[in-house]
Task: structure prediction
Amino acid sequence: MLASRKREVEIARELGVTRQAVSKSLREARARLTQIFIEVAGVLNSDIVRINVEKGFAVLRNRQTGTKIYLIYVPGEGPRVLMPSPDPCKEASYCAKIIEAAYRWGIIKREGEPAENPSEIIKSLVEKMEE
Amino acid sequence: MEVGEGWVRLSYGFPVALFRAELRDVVEVSDVNSLARGKLFKYFKFQVVPLALMPVIPVVYVAAKSSLPPLVYLPYLGIPVALGVLLSSYFLLTTTSFKKFIEKVCFLFCVGVPVLNFWLGITYRETYGRSLARDYYAAGVLILGEMLIFILLVAVWIYSTRRHIIVLEDSDGRYYAVVARDGDAAREFLNLVVDRVMRSA
Result:
């Protein structure tokens, strides 16, 4: 629901509930997402530099190395970590899930042809998270 | 600024607060200085647009004085003003941080002003048949104006490099900026907002 990018009124109409109920659920979902990002940041010994719960991502900075770490929540699966790497798409299925989640959250827009290089998509995703 | 469970109250101004806002549904918080590609114009339109419009001041002065210079000299006023506004606007839309914007504007100023002064000196001599340096009033006003602009740019540059800016966005898409005195204070504030405001929304 949080990643659907629909307005509260539309969601309420689709589900047949009041807008207040949708608003409350969305607030709770955002709070839960924040909680998840805080916990992952703690596990990775990192500070939060940016957190956006409407787009389901967070940017962290590792306290020891100072490197940036990108977190994205894959709906229905959980948070995924993107570490800086020259080839971020070594594991294709992991990368595909992150890209699909980025499309669903509306962080990046889906281009017409799906033939684009996944590493390039990840690069533009990181740039969007840094804007 | 006050932070409570699920809310953050911002106020600006002392002793009387000129601006007050209470945010309850914060959806985004970011330390702009720590991001690699922050969009300056997105967050600081009101702060940077006056800087980009600074080259227009001579035109405003001429308009206010309502004494148009001879048409033949209009390019001397028009070209530097148009170039200044264009370049400042370009920097405004493309630079990623306030610091970089000010650095570029300072560079433009430091390169542009000597060229402009040289040009003004030649034109002055052609028009009045004597050196601009001998007209103490005109030279004094010119130097004073340039020094004031330079001091303003340096002050903004120092201010923008020392302070950290935290941007908060609420669910209605409104942005609020909070200035922290340094990186540690910025981190502390950001963690406080994430922990007490966003987590308890």
Summary: The two ends of chain A are 25 Å apart (CA to CA). The first helix of chain A runs from residue 8 to 15.
